[in-house]
Design brief:
The chain is of the alpha+beta class and 198 residues long. 20% of the residues lie in helices and 25% in strands. It has four helices and 14 strands.
């Protein structure tokens, strides 16, 4: 039975057999029976490599330890409000910190935490960078080129033409939207392969 540790672009934790391409955590979210009991424990929400220094990230959910989380791709992790890890993704972290204009992890983590909890805003869809997520009929859709792609835990499914005018509610937090506008790519896949396949 799948654990409830797959993260949606809305930051929700769901149970699904699809694992994804990015690993992360936001503290210990589970109890001794591996049930999710909180949405987050700390403000430091990070996105990591699946493998690092011969450590293969697996789902264990040991009592009292951090909850292993899995994301479809980095676009999903960004939309959920996670940033690159300073340990396993040091170059990505350094570039990320330059783009957001912060010198300390605590400062960007506090800013992202406020953005995750704050209101969402509507923006003209045509003005959004690739890899941004928007809401359409209460579901997350990825902005990519001339299309919107419907997110699922296993990959991107339905495709629609990207509106040339009109607004949509943006899910991706403002600071991470700015990072995407700068063309950020890193050591983990920005997009799942299903985003590029037809």
């Amino acid at each position: 039975m799948p654990l409830q540790n797959r993260v949606t672009p809305l930051g929700e934790l769901i149970a699904d057999p699809a694992r994804g391409l990015v690993y992360g955590n936001r503290g210990c979210l589970h109890d001794a029976h591996r049930n999710i009991v909180r949405r987050f424990q700390v403000k430091r929400w990070i996105a990591c490599r699946l493998e690092f220094k011969e450590r293969r990230r697996v789902e264990k959910l040991p009592p009292g330890r951090f909850t292993e989380l899995f994301f479809l791709d980095e676009a999903t992790a960004f939309s959920a409000g996670h940033r690159p890890c300073a340990e396993c993704r040091r170059e990505d972290y350094n570039r990320f910190m330059q783009l957001v204009g912060e010198k300390r992890a605590d400062a960007i983590d506090a800013r992202l935490h406020a953005e995750r909890l704050g209101p969402r805003h509507s923006v003209v869809v045509a003005d959004l960078p690739d890899a941004t997520f928007v809401l359409r009929d209460d579901a997350p859709w990825l902005v990519l080129g001339t299309e919107l792609l419907r997110w699922s835990p296993a990959g991107y499914t339905e495709r629609l033409a990207r509106p040339r005018n009109g607004e949509a509610t943006v899910i991706t937090p403002p600071s991470l939207l700015g990072v995407l506008r700068a063309g950020f790519t890193g050591a983990v896949p920005l997009l799942h392969g299903s985003a590029r396949s037809r």
